[in-house]
Predict the 3D structure of the following.
Amino acid sequence: MFWKDRVGLKSGTKGGVPIPVAAKVPEAHLVAPVPMLRPSLGPDTAVSGRLSFTVPTRIDGRLRGEVRATDLLVVGEDAVVEGVVRALKLVVLGEVRGDIRGAERVEIGPGGRLMGTVETHSLVVKPGGCLDGDCRIAPPRSAGALRVVHPVPATSA
C-alpha cells in the first residue's frame, strides 16, 4: 500500500501495479534538507541480518541486526530498528533500539525515539523527539588537526 500523502512516495506503474520510484521525507520539521530517498524496507517488511546501503535510503519496516549506510539513512515513522546502526547521517522518525556508531550527524525528529548509545559529531533532537541512553559527541577529526605529543625529558636541578 502506498501512502502518497503520508510518506511522500512517488510511484509509477507496471501492468497496473504501483511501483515506488523514490521517497522524500517531509522537510518542514527537519533542520537539514533531505535528498530524494530510495525506499528499501516497506512498512510490511521484517528483516533480520546485515544490510548495507550506498545511496540515501529510507526504512519503513522492521529491522533486527546491523545496518550500514555510507550516506543518509532515514528511519520512517512506523519503522523499528533493533541493533547497530552505522550511518554517515541518520534521521530517526520512528524507533531505534541499539547503538549508533560513527555518525557525522544524528537527527531525532518529532515522534522519533532513540534508545541506546549514540556516538556522533552532531546531534539534533527536535521537540517531540526522545533520546533515552548514553551520548558521546565529538568534533570531526581533520587530517591537519592530529598532533603527536612527545614527552619532554625531565631535567635535574
In short: The longest strand covers residues 62-75. The chain has one helix and twelve strands. The two ends are 81 Å apart (CA to CA). The longest helix spans residues 4-7.
